[in-house]
Specification:
CATH architecture of the largest domain: 3-Layer(aba) Sandwich
CATH topology of the largest domain: Rossmann fold
Number of domains: 5
Helix content: 40-55%
Shape: extended
CATH superfamily of the largest domain: TolB, N-terminal domain
Structural class: alpha/beta
Number of strands: 23
CATH class of the largest domain: Alpha Beta
Strand content: 25-35%
Number of helices: 9
């Protein structure tokens, strides 16, 4: 009877062990699934935008624009996650641990230093100091270990590139709340967000200027910056354009390689408004449209749009054409005028210089504190076959700034006088009308004093009316004089003699 019992017990024990093993496997699979599911996608979202000088009517754009970006970025796409990015995502945890250890060491040092002023026995002081020194030494060892892990991570070559699907956080249904002062990597990690779109909207003379930055907040990782501008009513078109640029950037496909040669060699080359160092080394650009421009003194500028494709090589040769020049000269009654053209200075008259035949040029004339700016538009006076021209224009006779300031002050005073006289006239007119109505309706008895009072009111009203009209006319005249003065600061047009 004992053997069957022992067999049953062994069988039960095996079953228990099997169950424990199955539970362990299930837990492991669960944990693995969770670990794997922490970052199955590359998630992006937009945060609330800041507004600068934006009319109150468009205050909702602070959330409307990011909501639109979330919507328009919800398109199928993949991101190439580089080994550098993978390292950067792990690095904050390592650096955070090291920083914690450094802070703990600082507290221990402060505690040790405080013992020098403590009212305790020398023996106890030495005992506590020794114990704290041991703890400080241990912290320093831990800090070194933490730094070693950081170095090992940075030097780790086992990381490989991986392609992840790009998604929008919470399906684009919510604008991310990113506080002004926050650790961005930690805030994003807590919500399983890979990158956030920060932006601002600024009013520029009735137009909206939108600038955004797409950032992971990770050290050493690039930030993508884009901007658009247009009428406030074009918010959807602006959001679509920005979303297209964002998605092109975050795909992070293999860049195209562009080798650029330019003549002359001292020409400045700009790619997407950023200056390039042109040489034997190629320039790398990401897939999409890129604007290339080359400029050089004495040459016509040249521009080109590059439609770059991922992983392809491009060889671009830029040869600038020499500028066509014409010679222009001025003759004035005031030969003491100084002339400034580009970076050249010409003292006195006559003045002759070469200017580009196909560009608008501005010349500055100055005598004393009086300045005049003259626009030279060659297309307005050039004739076929001619290379030299004598031009004329009208120079200012007064300092335009001083003149404008004086006319502006007079204008404000005339407007103030008009504003003061107008309500006085309206009040007198109302009182006179009320008194006339009362006399007509026999609500007041007519006698000599009433007649005198009414006549005085009537005359005062008439005088005030004339004064108000005169002040209004004066304001209109002063406004015209102010506009005329302001017009003198506008560059003059040069004409052919």
């Amino acid at each position: 009877m004992g053997k069957p019992a022992d067999g049953g017990g062994q069988l039960g024990m095996k079953i228990k062990r099997l169950c424990v093993a199955l539970v362990a496997v299930a837990v492991a699979l669960c944990i693995f699934g969770q670990t794997k599911g922490e970052e199955p996608v590359w998630s992006i979202t937009a945060a609330k935008f800041t507004l600068t000088d934006v009319p109150e009517l468009y205050a909702s754009y602070s959330t409307a624009l990011p909501a639109m970006l979330n919507l328009f970025c919800s398109i199928p796409a993949n991101r190439l996650v580089t080994p550098e990015e993978k390292k950067a995502r792990r690095l904050p945890d390592y650096t955070s641990k090291k920083l914690t250890l450094i802070r703990e060491r600082a507290l221990l040092i402060a505690e040790r230093d405080s013992l020098y002023l403590a009212v305790i026995s020398e023996k106890e002081k030495l005992k506590r100091t020794g114990a704290l020194n041991k703890k400080i030494t241990a912290k320093e060892v831990d800090i070194q270990k933490a730094q070693k892990k950081i170095d090992e991570l940075l030097n780790d070559t086992s990381f490989t590139a991986e392609t992840l699907p790009v998604t929008v956080w919470k399906d684009g249904q919510q604008v991310f709340d990113l506080p002004e002062y926050v650790n961005i990597p930690q805030a994003l990690k807590a919500e399983h967000i890979s990158a956030v779109i920060n932006g601002s909207v600024q009013d520029l003379a009735g137009y909206m200027y939108v600038s955004i930055v797409v950032t992971t907040g990770l050290p050493g990782m690039p930030e993508y910056r884009f901007s658009e501008a247009g009428p406030y009513q074009s918010i959807e078109a602006i959001a679509r354009s920005l979303a297209s640029q964002i998605m092109t950037a975050i795909k992070n496909t293999q860049p195209a390689r562009v080798l650029i040669t330019v003549e002359p060699e001292n020409a400045e080359v700009y790619l997407d408004s950023e200056r390039l160092q042109v040489g034997e080394k190629p320039t790398y650009v990401y897939e999409g449209s890129h604007r290339l421009e080359a400029i050089a003194s004495g040459y016509d500028s040249a521009g080109k749009i590059i439609e770059a494709q991922a992983g392809k090589d491009y060889l671009l040769k830029i040869k600038l054409k020499k500028e066509a020049l014409i010679s222009v000269g001025f003759r004035f009654k005031k030969p003491v005028a100084d002339v400034f053209l580009h970076t050249q200075y010409f003292s006195g008259m006559p003045f002759e210089a070469d200017i580009p035949a196909e560009k608008t040029t501005v010349v500055s004339f100055s005598y004393g504190d009086v300045k005049t700016y003259v626009v030279l538009r060659p297309q307005n006076f050039m004739r076929q076959g001619l290379t030299k021209y004598q031009l004329q224009t009208t120079l200012n006779q007064k300092n335009t700034k001083t003149w404008i300031d004086r006319r502006r002050n007079i204008l404000y005073w005339s407007l103030g006088a008009f504003y003061v006289s107008l309500p006085i006239f309206m009040i007198l007119q109302g009182v006179t009308a009320d008194m006339a109505s009362a006399i007509m309706d026999y609500r007041i008895e007519i006698d000599e004093s009433v007649r005198e009072k009414y006549n005085a009111l009537f005359i005062s009203t008439a005088v005030m009316q004339g004064l108000t009209i005169g002040l209004g006319i004066n304001y209109a005249v002063q406004l015209g004089l102010y506009l005329h003065a302001a017009d003198q600061s506008i560059p003059k047009e040069a004409r052919k003699l």
